[in-house]
Every structure is written in structure tokens, then in C-alpha cells.
Amino acid sequence: MTIRHHIADEILVSYASGSLPEAWSLLVATHLALCPSCRKAASDAEELGGALLEDLAPVDLSEDAFDKLMSKLESADPEEAPVAAKKQTADVPSVLPEPLKSYLGGDLHALNWKRLGKGAYHIPISLRNGGGKARLLKVPAGQPVPAHGHRGEELTLVLTGSFTTHQGEFLRGDVEAADDDIEHMPVAGPGEDCICLAITDAPLKFKSLGARLAQPFIGI
Amino acid sequence: MSMHDNISGSGQGRGRLRLVVVNSDARPHLGASKPEMADALVDEFDIDDHAACLQAVGAHQDKRAFQSLFSYFGPRVKAYVMRLGCQPGQAEELTQETMIKVWRKASQFDPSKSAPSTWIFRIARNQRIDAFRRENRPELDPNDPSLIPEPEEAADSVIEQKQSEMQLLEAMKHLSEDQKAILKLSFFEDMSHGRIAEHLDIPLGTVKSRLRLALGKLRSTLDDSRLPPTDGRRV
After folding, report:
1. What is the pLDDT of residues B21-68, one digit of tens each?
2. Which CATH number fits domain A1-220: 1.10.287.40, 2.102.10.10, 3.30.360.10, 2.60.120.10?
3. Which of residues 185-214 of A touch B (CB under 8 A)?
4. Which of A99, A189, B52, B141 has a Cα-to-Cα distance from A137 of 20 to 30 A?
5. For residues B63 and B139, what is the distance between their CA atoms, to the nearest angstrom?
6. Measured between beta carbons, which residues in chain A are less than 8 angstroms from residue B234?
């Protein structure tokens, strides 16, 4: 699998800095599992963070800070000292990579899809804080996704199947970026339902009156 | 080739996997010396070499090495979280929590993957997000079997990937003042692209291109000692 549509470098820098909202970080981290090239770029961006940290003028800690820390470590029960958060990692690759799989509570077979109309389904993903919306979308093979412009930005990560826009074909792992200036009309490819993770920083505005009226109810 | 071979034999997580295996039945706790591991991994080290110190802490809970790391990085981590809006008391607390994580996770540090400052930055960043944004920080799981591994690399390129802090600071010098200013807003003020654009009164596109160029410059400086990108998409 070769990824052809990557995450923009400026988004990777914000991911590295910690300033991306949770929805965006979820999509970026899930893409990183599928894309060694972006993984490398993100880790380079974190090197910027390390360099900036070193460049900061140090602020003195209290005089007994180190002793306090050591006594905290000494009093900690070694049995409770976590080496790393223990995750249950299955042996077989799943369709949904981490961290998305954990956010949804399981792989594809475990999901409860909600009907969206025209054969499409979705699952809103709950996040701990505001700042973006995330949802999983399922569009039947060969069907168009309703035409919409954007307020703000949207990223879509393909997980199964494919879709096509004027920018070309998007397959598993590919990310499509759209913003205010783009009116795109993605059409799911033939043969397989297209499942993708879509995140937005503002509600989409649909073109057709019907879809616009339905918008408050379907929560996208 | 099995997935395991693939992951442990290439790129991401090479050293880390090996260390995790070594440590799989040993929880680090204070004073527990493991001389056989210490011999295998670290014999003697330079107390001013942060990478060697992290490895000494990871291998045998070396307090002297930890104190050296604490005195250098502690005040910088405090400065970092204060820049992000912490009061001095909270900042002191968050610094302690960060350094506790450094102590506990030191065995996962892999000097062939990142500079010590980068590794500690990641921990401080995540502590800060957890404590103040009340948000999760979705992260890659390097052990996820769905992870697509790096293409195979020549074994002798591995050692060259080591990024010293000196190299990083050198790379920073090549950034323009504009680029540095924007990086600081992103890293230290928690600002989105849109807010940076408002704050500096420049177009959103300019914010994005400056961030992109800053990363590109860093990569080209660091890439001098590395293999070219595998798919040639970035420099």
C-alpha cells in the first residue's frame, strides 16, 4: 500500500506542538499508523519541540525540588509504578488502526451504525472536549457523498474502499483536505463500501434544501 | 517475513522493542539494581551526556544520572509549562510529574530515534495537555499490528540517524525570525493556525507556509546525515 495523499506538514507541526484539537489529533495519529512517511515527518516536527524546549530560558525550581521528587519516587509502591499504560493489543491486524479503534470501542464488526439516508451510515465519535467533530462515515460503493461547501476545514481519512474527487482517487490511508474554498463532490468507488474518518472544525453546509433541513437532526 | 520481524528489524521502535523485551518481567523501582543489564547496556557514561544519562536511568535506575537530567531539563520544563499559562506552583507540580515519567519510562528511550530533549519534550507536552486541556491526546500505538512498518533500511544507516541536541540547535539557527516566532506561538501559546493568523494579522496561508518551511528547513539540515526520504515526497 502506498499512500498518495498525505497530511500537510503544517498540520503535523501543530500535532507535534500539542496545539491540535482532539478530533484532528485523532485523525492524524490514525493516519500515522498507516503512513511511515508522515510518521517520520511528525517525529521530525517533534525534534523542533525538543530544540525549542532547550532554547528556553530556564526558570529556577524550588531548592528542595529534587529531594521532593526522589522521596515521591521512593514512597511510590513499585507494584503500582506503571511502566507504560497497558493496552490490550491483539495479534492480528484490524481494519481500524489505533487510536481510532479504541475511540470506537472495537473493530468494524463491533460497530453500531446510524442511518444517514441514501444508504449511507455514520457514527459520531465522542471526544473529551469541544474543538472539532469526528465521525466515521460509510458510503455505499458507487454512491456520491452529498455535495457540500465548507465553513472551516475538513479532513477525511479513507479506511476501506475508495472515493474520487477532482483531486483524484483516495484509497486506504489517504487523506483528503478541504476548506472554505473547495466545493468537492466525492463519489465512493465501485466494489466496496467506503468507510472513512471525517473531522471538521465547523458544521458542513449542504447545498440541497433537503439535506440542509436534515442537518440539525443528523448532527453533522 | 513476520510482522514482528518487520517491526523490530526496521525503523520505528527498533531499540525500544528490544528494551521492552528485556524489561518485560522487571518493573523499575527505586534502588533495584540489575547489574547484568547495566553491564550489557551501559558501562560508564558521561554525566553531561543526556542520552547516556537516560540510558543509565533506564538500565539501572542511576540516581546520579537522573539528577543531572533533572538539573538541566527541570528548569526548562518549568519554563515551558509557564509559557503555556501555568502559575509557578502548578508549573513546579507539572515539572515533578514530567520528571517522574522520565524516570519510569527511561528504559523506552532509544537514542537512535530521537534526541533526549525531544523525548522529554513529548512527555512534558502530553502531561500539560492532560492536566490543562482536559482533552485526550490520541497517539499512535507503536505495537498496533495494523501499523504499516517502515521499508527496510540498510543497517549502517541506523547509527547515522542519531540526532544530537547540538545538531538540533544548529538547525534552529537556520530558521528565520518569522519562522521561529510562528513556531513559538504553536508550541508555547497553544495557538491554532487561525489564531496565529489573527494574532500576527497575516493571512492564514502565510501561517501555513511558514510552518511548512520551518519543518522543511529542519529536515534538510538533519537529512544531511540520513538516508533520503523513502518516497521523495519531502525534503
Report:
1. 333 334 444 444 444 444 444 457 788 899 999 999 999 999 999 999
2. 2.60.120.10
3. none
4. B141
5. 30
6. 9, 37, 41
